[in-house]
Amino acid sequence: MSLLESALEAEARGSSVIPVFIKSKHPATLWKPYQTRRATPEQIRAWWGRTPDLNLGLVTGRISG
User: Fold this and answer.
1) Domains of the chain (ranges, CATH numbers)
2) Whole-angstrom Cα distance, residue 40 to residue 63?
3) Distance between CA atoms of 35 and 63, rounded to whole angstroms?
4) CA of residue 29 relative to chain centroid, distance
5) Beta strand 16-20 pairing with 55-59
6) Global pTM?
7) For 27-32, which contacts have Cβ atoms below 8 Å and span 24 or more sequence positions?
8) Residue 49 to residues 14, 15, 52, 63: CA-CA distances in angstroms?
């Protein structure tokens, strides 16, 4: 399973997904907005479409249950 597929699956289960730089814990996008709203499947596809080797990060807390 690709990281894009994993990200879409996590989003479908209700997790707030963000891209993270490879071999890092640093987000590849601003992450604070995703504490209160989840990325859409279209946004997730755009992130991994531009940079397919991004890692997958999950924003924890209330947004992700």
Assistant:
1) 3-64 (3.30.720)
2) 14
3) 6
4) 9
5) antiparallel
6) 0.90
7) 27/57, 28/54, 31/57, 31/59
8) 21, 20, 6, 24
